[in-house]
């Protein structure tokens, strides 16, 4: 018998490459992902409310809002301390001697329960002002470094601050006589501050949503790169450890010494 090269007597179907499986799978994943993204509906509160346009830049607007919030916090603390001082000095039955720069005629001197409520509003306004001041400093740092998670404390604190100051403003405007300059000035100031605060909050919230979306995209990109790298590494390892000849090789592996005529 003559042992040598063997001619294949049958035709074998070619085996698909590993890379073709990977490519087809990734394309299926991409198509499925695009279909799933189109089918998913994002809630309205997770969509940026304000966007960049020819007249406004959200990032610059958020930074300006942070600087204005510092001024609002300081203004709230100062006016809160002044209101408590005036309510204490103008308590019913109190007597003052000497020369005073201001008159306390504008201070409410009616029901003691209403006065106590005004004092409570002023006291909590001071605390809220300090909270806004601290979180606004955190906001400025977060905006400079684009850390969206550090924006959340300011969003919560300032939202509560706006609601609380709206109630305090209504209570103050209804009870105090608007014939005195101080009361009129405070009402006008808060009429300007409160709507501006709402607009500034929407600016920062819109920027927060944009930064959160960018972070999600970066995480997905890193995850995909890591997955592809692991797949490539496993594929390379499997190809390097496979047999040097295919199962259908035409080269005989019988030792030379075994050949006989």
Description:
- The N and C termini lie close together (6 Å).
- The longest helix is centred in the C-terminal third of the chain and has 60 residues, at 181-240.
- The chain has a domain at 58-228.
- It contains 5 helices and no strands.
- With 261 residues, the protein is an all-alpha fold.
- Helix 2 (58-89) packs antiparallel against helix 3 and helix 2 packs antiparallel against helix 5.
- The model is unreliable at 1-39 (pLDDT under 50).
- The chain has helices at residues 18-39, 58-89, 112-145, 152-175, 181-240.
What oligomerization state is this entry in?
single chain
The biggest sheet amounts to:
none
Determine the strand fraction and express it as a percent band.
under 5%
Helix content: 55-70%
- H/E series: HHHHH
Mean pLDDT: 75
Radius of gyration: 37 Å
First and last CA, distance: 6 Å
Query: What is the number of helices?
Result: 5
- Total strand segments: 0
Q: Features of this protein?
A:
261 residues; mainly alpha; 5 helices; 0% strand; disordered N terminus; transmembrane; membrane; transmembrane helix; Putative conserved plasma membrane protein
Brief synopsis:
The protein has 261 residues and is mainly α.
């Amino acid at each position: 018998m003559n042992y040598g090269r063997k001619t294949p007597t049958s035709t074998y179907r070619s085996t698909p490459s590993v890379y073709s499986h990977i490519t087809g799978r990734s394309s299926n994943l991409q198509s499925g992902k695009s279909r799933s993204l189109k089918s998913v509906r994002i809630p309205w509160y997770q969509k940026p409310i304000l966007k960049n346009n020819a007249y406004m830049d959200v990032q610059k607007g958020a930074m300006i809002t942070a600087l204005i919030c510092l001024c609002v916090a300081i203004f709230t603390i100062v006016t809160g301390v002044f209101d408590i001082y005036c309510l204490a000095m103008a308590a019913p039955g109190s007597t003052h001697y000497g020369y005073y720069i201001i008159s306390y005629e504008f201070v409410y001197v009616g029901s003691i329960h209403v006065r106590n409520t005004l004092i409570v509003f002023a006291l909590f306004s001071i605390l809220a002002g300090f909270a806004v001041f601290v979180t606004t400093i955190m906001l400025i740092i977060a905006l400079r470094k684009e850390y969206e998670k550090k924006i959340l404390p300011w969003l919560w604190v300032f939202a509560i601050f706006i609601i609380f100051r709206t109630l305090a403003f209504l209570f103050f405007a209804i009870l105090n006589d608007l014939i005195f300059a101080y009361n009129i000035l405070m009402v006008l100031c808060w009429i300007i501050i409160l709507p501006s605060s709402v607009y500034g909050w929407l600016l920062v919230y819109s920027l927060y949503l944009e930064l959160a979306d960018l972070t999600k995209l970066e995480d997905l990109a890193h995850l995909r790169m890591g997955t592809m790298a692991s797949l490539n590494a496993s594929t390379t390892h499997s190809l390097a450890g496979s047999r040097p000849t295919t199962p259908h090789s035409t080269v005989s592996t019988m030792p030379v010494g075994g050949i006989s005529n």
